Amino acid sequence: MKKLSSDVVIIGTGGAGMTAALEAADQGVDVLVVGKATLGRGTCTSYAAGFFTSSSLKFSSEQHHKSTLDVGRSINELPLVELVTQRGKECLERLKGRGIGLLPMDNGYRVDSRGNDKLIPGYPLVTSMGHALDKQGVKSLPGFHCLELIKEDGVITGVLGVTADGPAVISAPSVILATGGAGAIYLRNDNPVGISGDGYAMALRAGCRLRDMEFVQFYPIGFAEPGMAANLVLPPFPDAAKVYDAKGRNAFDGLENCNTIAEAISLFRDTASIFFYRKHLEGGLFLDLTGVDDALWQKMHSLRLLAKKKFDFRAKWLRIAPIAHFFIGGVEINTEMETTLPGLFAIGEVTGGFHGANRMGGNALTECIVSGTIAGRNAALLAKGRGPVEASESNVKDRNPEWAGQKGRGARSEFGRLFNRVKKTAWEQAGIIRDLEGMQKGLELVSMMEDELRALNPGNITEGLRANRTGSALLTLRCILRAGIMRKESRGALYREDYPETDDANWLRNIFISLDRNRDDLILEDRNGDRMD
After folding, report:
1. Which site from 49, 76, 131, 151 is most exposed, i.e. has the minimal number of CB atoms within 10 Å?
2. Residue 121 CB neighbours (<10 A)
């Protein structure tokens, strides 16, 4: 087994992880960033539209705070909301000072995509952050697949993983979890394929709590045209863009408080996705760009990217439908980005609390930068205080799967087919519109697939990694379904057809999840008030 060590290990190579690495390196400690791919690639940050919501001359931190709570349907973790809305501008200016191209907007910043007209804004963002890390001499280890967090006497001591060459352990006094969400476990999603719940599964198995896992955000406008890959239609949208139902009627007619595409994708992703999904099921939903001026097709970055697709947008309507986009819930943290496991920090989409029951447009990237800034510094200071640690060989050996030492690229088709069934189950039983019967059926299917996965017995590294991905996805899906059943109301990104109303009298609360590893059973608790203990 390969043995490595570092002062701070960051699991995840997206915007949150890279920000944390920059901040930790400022403290003069050794930093190692590990991930499935090279820095920035295969992450949700690289797919991002590049908007950061924060205070500005025209948008105060108080307005940002109120909008975040309104969109989150009032069950956000208030200290986290205060933290991000108050420090967002400061942290973004700090990032800008490192040479990252950001341009001011009325309500925050956007990535400077000038000179990168053919790329999604997220790509120049992660590229420039990667250059900043290179300047600071931060080390990275691409192709490292994390399997488990290692702890001894209730304190983190490192990470167990596998590379193409076999198993490896990285000892570290501070570990930062920045693995993103689990959007790729849904049949229709806009996430990179590797975003499948690894962080949630590792955190649960290490003894951390998850929260708000019933809330999965769907983006209202995603490609649904036959022959086109499922993805979101990148904003911003010109004023001339319209959305129609199958009968040619304005698709916004009857949607309360939301009248434009801009409002749907920024403030009302929850209600717009539900409303549009019904329209989709009733015969179809269509984006009409035929009235957009020719000049705008050259001027707007989002339209230039659309124009690259093999579709005549100027002559035909595009079939669209909502798509799985972002996980609202995640690992429980405090305002220092600490989890309930000493030595483990968590940042970005893998965490829960800031967004409440629904996310405001532009808040994801801001959360990544603020949480990464805080966690990077705190993890470095903790590492200095603890000093070097070493994960004990016996502890690691007991957790090292047999397949991790068996090289091989081939994998039986059963692994791929099983993961596809997970995606279908998530979409149909834990999707945009749910009810008790469907979620209970989903749990039965999850249990059946978990049994099948255990029986597959991976024979090499490739099969083992696919099994690990599927296992993480199934555990994540189990959390979504169990929490969805427990919350007997509709709120934000959770819509239950059998409980269609929001119930503030009984459910202005949050659901927390822990794992009993001895029984492989989830323990759920709904509560409010102070969270971390």
Report:
1. 131
2. 23
The two tokens of residue 126 are 């992660």
Q: Which H or E element spans position 158?
A: strand 155-163
pLDDT of residue 461: 95
The confidence score (pLDDT) of residue 531 equals 44
Domain at 168, CATH number: 3.50.50.60
CB 117 within 8 A of CB 301: yes
DSSP-derived secondary structure letter, 59: B
Residues 122, 102 share a domain:
yes
| 531 part of a folded domain | no
For residue 526, the cross-strand partners are 511
In a domain, 513, yes or no: no
Spatial separation of the C-alpha atoms in residues 344 and 178, rounded to whole Å: 11
Q: What letter would DSSP give residue 45?
A: G
Matching residue, tokens 């100027």: 314
Residues 199 and 60 in one domain: yes
Place of tokens 């659309």: 306
Check if the beta carbon of residue 178 is closer than 8 Å to that of residue 312: no
452: which residues sit within 8 A by CB, 6+ positions away? Answer: 418
How far apart (Å, rounded) are the C-alpha atoms in residues 9 and 418? 32
The angle subtended at Cα 514 by Cα 531 and Cα 375, nearest 5°, is: 55
Instruction: Indicate the SS3 state at residue 62.
Output: helix
Bridge partners, 323 (sequence order): 219
What DSSP string describes 315-381?
A: TSPEEEEEEEEEE--EE---TT-B-SSTTEEE-GGGB-SSSTTS--TTHHHHHHHHHHHHHHHHHHH
10-residue mean pLDDT series, the chain (533 residues): 96 98 98 95 94 96 98 98 98 97 96 83 95 96 97 96 94 98 98 97 98 98 94 93 97 95 95 97 97 94 92 97 98 98 98 98 98 98 96 80 87 96 98 98 98 96 96 98 98 98 97 94 84 45
Res 530: pLDDT: 46
- CB proximity list for 55: less than 8 A, separation 6 or greater: 61, 63, 64, 85, 88, 89, 108
Degrees (nearest 5) of the Cα angle 298, 300, 303? 80
Range of the domain at 90: 2-215+326-398
In this structure, are 159 and 227 located in the same domain?
no
If asked whether residues 30 and 106 sit together in one domain, one would say yes
State the Cα angle at 279 between 212 and 252, rounded to 5°: 85
Which amino acid is located at 324 in the chain? A
Contact status, residue 366 vs residue 45, Cβ threshold 8 Å = no
220/275 Cα distance (integer angstroms): 9
The number of distinct structural domains making up the chain is 3
